[in-house]
Amino acid sequence: MDRTMRVGAYGILSDDAGRILMRRATEATGSPDSWWLPGGRVKHAEDPADTVARTLSVQTGLDVEITALRTVTSAVVPMTDQWREHHTLIVYDLKTAGGELAPERENARNLWVDPTELAGQPMSQITSTMLGLSETGLPPGHGRAPEPPPGKLLEQRVGAYAWLTDPAGRVLLTMIPEGYWAAGKWHLPGGGVDFGEQPEAGLLREIHEETSQRAVLTGLRRVVSRHDPDSITPDGRPSDFHGINLIWDGVVPNPSQLTIVDVGGSTSEVRWFEPADIPGLPKTVAVEAGLDP
């Protein structure tokens, strides 16, 4: 069974009447009359926010600005009998910044729709989840085959991380050990999202493995990305690495003794810090992003 990962970024754009902009597939597609949010796949080394601006311009003719990060969700999609793909979808709220809406582009019609009218309409599991509607379903797959790996590993990895505080206001950070991309730097607790795993569930798992703490997530904070075209994997392979970091706010309501449960993994030390001490630390882009509320 082939298993692949895909990251997409999508936008919710509303008009003054409360309608949202949707795309309805034409007969030229494999799923005519199905409904989709505008947006698309995050290209290698592309920030998800840039993906939304690029795809909205191509698909709708509109220039947009992001007003908020709305949600992140994941689902495993059956592409063929022998292929499953894990989709991670990042959804932003948008506003129009220019351009003119095209009636039809990229094999879909662009329509303003009252969300309540979409109940029961054909759409993918992911689209219905993003809109908060009950799943209506589409036939599996999109007819494309998994791409063979290149000579140099093109690695696009989704990680879930948390800016965790305790009742005293301290922040929990982890140290990256030798052999990893940011050895010697302090990082946010968290890690890669496994195949078939929701980001929040993966984050809570990673927090416990790295720190032994039981955390409560309180909301999405930021999405940031990092591109390292000359990275080396822990097993020594050259990698063109694109990391997409989903950052949540969270609390540890009842701190316990800090212990690394997953000994020998990507964490060598874990420690509570006063917020004022963090700017002077050697730190990753995820911690930098966490400093910016």
Rounded to the nearest angstrom, the distance between the terminal CA atoms is 42 Å
CA radius of gyration:
20 Å
Number of helices: 4
Give the low-pLDDT segments: 141-146
Overall SS class: mainly beta
What is the annotated CATH architecture of the largest domain? Alpha-Beta Complex
The CATH topology of the largest domain is given as Nucleoside Triphosphate Pyrophosphohydrolase
| SSE string | EEEEHEEEEHEEEEHEEEH
The shape is globular
Oligomer: single chain
Quick one: how many beta strands?
Answer: 15
- Overall pLDDT metric: 91
CATH class of the largest domain: Alpha Beta
Largest sheet: 4 strands, mixed
Strand order of the largest sheet: 4-1-6-5
Number of domains: 2
Strand content: 35-45%
CATH homologous superfamily designation of the largest domain: Nucleoside Triphosphate Pyrophosphohydrolase
